[in-house]
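G., before I forget:
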Amino acid sequence: MLEIRAGTATAVLPRRRLASLAAGAAVAAALPRPARAQGAPLRVGLMLPFSGTFAALGENIAAAIELHLAERGGRMGGRPLQIIRLDDESNPANAVQNANRLVGRDRAEVLIGTVHSGVVMALVQISRERGIPLIIPNAGNVAATRELCAPSIFRSSFSNWQPAYGMGLALGRQGVKRAAWITWDYAAGNEAGEGFRQGLAAGGGEVVRELKLPFPETNFQPLLAQIPGLNVEAVGSFFAGGGAVQFVREYAAAGLKERIPLCGSGFLTEGVLGPQGAAAEGIRTALHYGDGLDSPKNTAFREAFKARTTRDADVYAVQGYDAAQMLAAGLEAVRGDLGAEAAFVRAIREARIDSPRGAFTLSPSHNPVQNIYLREAKGGQNRVVGIAAEALADPGTGCRMPA
Amino acid sequence: MDLSGLLAQLLNGMQYGLLLFLISSGLTLIFGVMGVINLAHGSLFMIGAYAAFVITGWTGALWLALPAALIGGALFGALLERGLFRHFYRREHLDQVLLTFALILLFEEARSALLGNDFHSVQVPALLDFSVPVTPDFAYSAYRLAVLGACVLVALLMFLGLERTRLGSAVRAAAEKPEMVELLGLDARRIHMAVFALGTALAMLAGALAAPLQSVYPNMGDGFLIISFVVVVVGGVGSVAGAFWGALLIGLVDTLGKAYLPEVAGLAVYVLMAAVLLWRPSGLFAPARG
């Protein structure tokens, strides 16, 4: 599937590709090639959305990466880093071309990206084919650390399965026996649904009904009107962005909120509490980060991020910061020499990342083993009220990592 | 199946159907009177919704967006008819499809350039920001009920206008027997412009009304366009009454399908359309054509 897509991209845009190849060759010929010394800058390609729907997420990830680099004096493993930004616009149609541009024209030696789970597949593919290290600072599609896992691919964020599993587990432990799950019928929603179902089962409960509507439709009414008849004690959900705003408001307007508590993956209330207003108050969600996490590391990080950007840090900034920390762990171990690939991979795999979210390690399939916090929406914040699942690892089903 | 759940779903179906009526009544009239398949009708709905988003953002009042969508829509429709569609009535359907498809691309591109590709939500007016229980365990937002009422009101006004005014009867005549308009010495150009203005105004009003219910996003009119064509086919081309009953029927079948037979919900309305076409090939309320 991906190979076909790559093929089409080449076929459709031969001229532009030729032009960029020619330009690349010209530049390469004109510049004297420095010997690959310890001191030569290491080119790190940041493929992130800097425009479009997810631009704010991309900016926060990039700013946090640059913050950590600045804390290290611009060097990792003794080598200065050269950051190359590329705007992927969260557009899957250009993903393969953009990824090729970073490793081709820009000769990136390490890749960090991206937010959109369709776009990240192009990076996963190129990392698998060429062995270029990739750190994913957001996109949560489970495949990247399951069936498509590879030694060169790491994730600093989460798998869609993780937060929903934590939410289901927390509900089950509260004594909820029957719950419904409601989401958009697309990959992220269904992967989260699988997590919620398994988490609730582990806590002793059961998902008795899954309600789905096509992405990104927002005609929730026919689904909401079914909920009173299901005889459930709670409703779990996966929605994000504008759809999450709408859903939370309609759930409250239908008079369901007081009788059947709504909960979900943290994205339900992440960055959208303002427009959700009173309808969100008291909603519990689960995520690997939250407001009011009281640790020296988190406080220091939030202050530094605010000082650098004048914005408040969020979960995306944390994921970017940790992507940079993971890269540093690898590069320090091999003293900046990516040629020592096995040692580089081993160092990251064995690292303990001192994250603002709380320290984490990586699972055998290179996804964070992390606490999933239980949060409650209150006064415009997602306050952490407990731990939904401690040191939770994605099962990594189907990952066959070459030793 | 519990009774109060069914009641809530019937209300959902009616509300969805009435909104569909606002969109499909314009579509059916434009096709009936001028013979134009207007694929851009869904984009007009989208423009109405974005207009509500922009106006509510500026002024904080959705109330202002509704007359703006109606009046702006009528003017915009008249302008489109005058500048573009008028020159396509005598052309082949393929030319008309190309024109209206081009309009979709233009409208979406303009929307993308001016307002971006984000999802937006539009606040419900504060006055209607409360809920009314419609069954013992299900409530309806007052705004949703108000939309239902507004749609009924518009439908009533349309029937009165079509039945009781001279222009209305001319439009009905034009929809049922286009060749009669010329024979009776009516001004066809005026009728065409009025019909197009009305259709555009209704589609944009529907978009503005739906904005707080649906949220606002790129290509949001596409789904409505397709389902509105189904309504037109089921109701009978050119018949406003057909559009009304067809829209209610489709709204109920779609909603009840989603609620009680989710596995086949996507198909339900198309099965209904096929059944109607087999039973009455020109639709339930097709004007008798001589």
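Residues 9 and 256 of chain B are 6 Å apart (CA to CA). The longest helix of chain B spans residues 3-34.

More on Monday.
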